[in-house]
Each structure stands twice: as structure tokens, then as C-alpha cells.
Amino acid sequence: MIIDSFAFMPLLIASVASFVTIVVLLADREQYNSLSLALHVLCAALMSAVSLYTAIYATYNLLVIGVTIASILIVLAVFINRFSKARNNDIASSSQKNALSQENIQRSVSEDIIPIAKDFVVQVTDSLVNISKLTPFIDNVNTTLLQTVKADGSVLLLIDEFEDLLVVESLVGAFPPPYRLPQEVPHTPLEVENSFRSTKFTLDQTIFGTVARTGKAELITNPREDSRLVENLPEPFLSLGSFIIVPLKVKDTVIGVLALSRSPSVMPFTKEDFDTATDLCDIASAAINIVYVHRSITEREELTREAGVASKIQSMIQLKKLPSIPTLSLGTVHQRAAGVCGDYYDIIPARKDRISFIVSDVAGKGITSLVIILMLRAMVRLTVNTKQSASTILTWLNKELSGEINLDHFASVALINYNMENSTIQFSVGGTIPIYLYKKSTGEISKISNITEPIGVEKSSVYTDDQCTVETDDIVISYTDGIVETTNINGEQYSKNRLLEVVKKNAHLSGKEIANKIRSELEAFSGEQFQHDDQTLLVLKIQ
């Protein structure tokens, strides 16, 4: 009997479930149309009544079983429908909230970055109009990023266009160097900052070089676990905190690096700080590149104008032809690389007993170099007519160039005085211009000059004379470093040894023919490779 009573428990449960279903249906009546709601309620009420009646009167047949199963299915369907709609509503609500949150974040980021971008554009325009404002522009870009991400220090480094070196262009705030400081640098804030500003980093040095080389931004929150960083303890101001280091890129080309630092006593940079810095660096890179490209174009145009004027002047002072000297056979090579030629040579039949030869290489390019050349030419042509020695003339030149004249240039100069009456050469060198002597009697060629202080560096410099006797078929040569530093397509230099070997092999030729051989050798060696330095060679063969 107990077992029979338990057998009707499912019917009681089905009856109660059907009744609950009616309550749920009425509560969610907004979800159904009138006909659907009426049918659901009617079915649930019928199932509830049949189940309850059967349980009470203990009648059990196929009809009752069918109604029970249908009741259970309808109950499940209603509750599944309700749960599904509730879940969909939660998902929709969550998605809407996320969308609104994302929209708010984007709006917040936009509201932060757009004014900065506009300010960069204004500054770029100002820098294009006034090129002298380039440094303030770089400083302002650096300061803006520091303030936006709430950093304690910021350093902006740019890659030198002629060398693969990172150069500090701007340093703002407190930025502890994350590399090993030189031992000679005192650990004081001022000395460390000055050292940092003047240091140039190769692309295989420090974390700055790594970021520039890889083009990958870095977020470093624990510097003591990063082997690429070095902490210069024990001074507290040198302690490392967190870092954001971002490459400044234009398309796929890295033009520099911007690094931000936070003190270890404050919260490290977050991913949001990192993303903001990265976005701002993209804008800053484009702005900086525009200014630098404009400056490069402006400087190139200025150099082109200067070169045009200087070339005309240089063509006026250049020897139209070599003088005819009975006891000498002369040959020259004189090739300008680009722009204003920094090399200068001259042959001056000063007196009956002396002919003066000068070969010089003026540092730098442009109008200033031309001014130095013109001064050298004028002073040498005036003084070689006197009885003063080569060293005295160089000493006078040096005092004049390093004296009251406000020109930050210097020159290497070789002055050779040939005495036809006693077959001697007297010479003096200021700087690195070499003089070589080939002796016919031995078949050997050797350097007879020494390296000294260039002209125009130190006013108190004093130069000395050297002298030697020359014989028939001896050869004297002097040249600028552009000759031996001529490069080929593989980056190899022509070298001094190649040059001297050509002279020895062709010593039986005239001075002019030897110079032509050297010119041909240089052209064959370099091919189509562009040369960055001027080339000047002077050959004197004794007859």
C-alpha cells in the first residue's frame, strides 16, 4: 500500500508543476499573444486537474500517463523559454553596457588625444615657418607625453642620419639612466644629466638601442628582473622604477625612441598608460618627421645655392694649366666630391731660386671653407715671395686663422719649397697632409713628413722645417686623404699602399703620366661608387 501511494507521487508533482506553470504564464503574459496565452493556460489547467484527480482516486491508465508526460513537457517548455529570454536580455544588457563603456573609453581617449594632436599641428606649422624653433618643438613634444601619462621623466632620442647612433634631443624631468654610467661621471644629479645628454648610443647598446633596432615598444614594470637595464646605485635618484619605451616610426622606418620613467616610489605604469603613450608617439613621429624633412630640404637648397656661388669663385682661382718648369715634370689629380671643394692646391714660381707648392684640406664644407681657402691662397702668395722658410710661413698662417677671425674651421697644409739652384726641397706640414719621396737610386719610396697640429686650431702652435736633397728622376708626391680613402662598391678603401705601388711601378714615366695612371686606377677601383671626400694629388718629378 505504501508502494502504491508512492507510485502516484509523480502525478501530484505534475499537478503542482502545472499549477505553477499557470502562475508563470500569467506573470509573463506580455511575452505571449492572447490566443497563445489562453491555450497554454487551458492545457496547464487541464493537466493539473487530471493529474490531481488521478492521484486522489487512484485511477491509472494510458490517458493519465499521456496527460502527465504532456504536462511535464509543457512545464519544461515554459521554463526553458523564460530562462532563455532572461539570459538573452542579460547578454543584450551586458553587450549594451560594454558597448557604452567602450564608447566612453574611446570618447575619453579621443578627447585626450585630439587636442594634443591639434597642438602638434600648430607647433609643426610654427617650426616650418621658423626653423630656429625646432628645439622648443621637440622639448614640447617630450613634455606633453610626460604630462599626459603622468611620468616623472622623459627622454627623446633621434637616430643620426649619417651614423646609426641615437642622440639625445630632449631630456625632461627626472630620468635615471638605465645603463652603466662611465666611471668618471660623479653621481650628482647635474653631472649625471649632462652625461646623459651628451651620450650617443649605438643600436646594439642599452634598452634604447634594442627598441630602435626591433621597432617594438616596451612596458617595463619591474626593472630589476630585466637584464637589459642597469641600476647605478646607491644614490636614491638613480633608482629605477617603471619604464615605457616606444619607437618613433614613420611607416616602417624607426627615426628615434621616446622613453618615459616613473619613480619606484609611485605606482608603475599601467597597460592603459602604455597604450596612450604608444598612440601619442605615432602622432609625434609624424609631426617630428615633417619638421625634419622640411629642415633637410631647406638646408639642401641652401647648400645648393652656396655651392653654385662657391663653384664659380673656385673656378676663378683654380690653375688653368700647370706652369712649365725646366727642371720639373708636374702632374696633378683634383676631383671635387660634391658641393664646395674643401681641397686646394697651388703652384707658385715665387723667385728664380724657389718654386712653392701647397696642398691643403680644409675641414668642413660650404662658404666658410671657401673663405678659409681664399685666405690661405692670398697669404701664401704674398709670403712665399719673401725669404722666410716654409715653417715660418705656416706659423704666420696659423696665427692669422686662429686669431681674431671668428671661424670655427681648421686646415691641414703641406708647403714645399723647391730650390732649383741646389736641388733641395724644404718643407713644413701643419696637420696630416703627407709628403713622400721616391729615390731613383734605391727604388724605394718613404714618408718624409710628420703629423703636427693643423692650421687654425691653436694660436701658439709652432711649425718646423725639414729639408732633403733630390736627384734626377726622384719623385715627390703629396695628397689629401680623399685619395687613399676612395671606396669601391664593397666598401673597401683604395689605401696608401696601392697608391705608392702605382708610383713605384710607373716611376719611369713623366709626372703628368704618373698622375694620369693614378687617376685611372682610382676610377677603375671605385667604379660607380659615390665618393664623399674631395681628391687632390700633386706629383713632382725631378728632371
TrEMBL record:
Q: Output the InterPro entries linked to this UniProt entry.
A: Bact_Sigma-Reg, GAF, GAF-like_dom_sf, PPM-type-like_dom_sf, PPM-type_phosphatase-like_dom
Q: Which SUPFAM superfamilies match?
A: GAF domain-like
Where would I find the PPM-type phosphatase domain in this sequence? 325-542
Q: Name one GO molecular function term.
A: phosphatase activity
So which domain of life are we looking at?
Answer: Bacteria
PANTHER family listed in its UniProt record? STAGE II SPORULATION PROTEIN E, STAGE II SPORULATION PROTEIN E-RELATED
The protein's name:
SpoIIE family protein phosphatase
Show the taxonomic lineage: Bacteria, Pseudomonadati, Spirochaetota, Spirochaetia, Spirochaetales
